[in-house]
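For reference, the entry.
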Amino acid sequence: MKKLLSILAFIVFIGVLRYFYSHNPSDNETPFAICMTKSVANINCPGCGGQRAFHQLLHGNFIEAGKLNIFIYLFAPLLAYIFFSFTLKPFNINLPDINLTTKGLIITFIILSIFTIFRNIHLV
């Protein structure tokens, strides 16, 4: 049963990748998630631009993806690794676990906070 669920998850994963590749989140007619922080407080959060950056990344536009959200280069591989580590376990393929300490989480939070502050300062 777990193998079947892993195969189903992989099929859904491929479908999501195909959807992101063929539909641009910048178009208003696509049902992509909107940022609540941007809608309510008019502040760009650390994830703002992530969907558009992922779309550009799938098209090979690496510079444009980085301009939309620089963290795409960290989070896209990280999320793919986590996804594959879970979906391959039923097939006895075990990827090494990611061990993140409390100190690592705090440093990540500080970096994201500083990024958010600088991203919302309009110097021009």
Helices lie at 2-22, 36-41, 50-58, 62-68, 72-87, 102-120. The longest helix spans residues 2-22. Residues 87 and 93 are 9 Å apart (CA to CA).
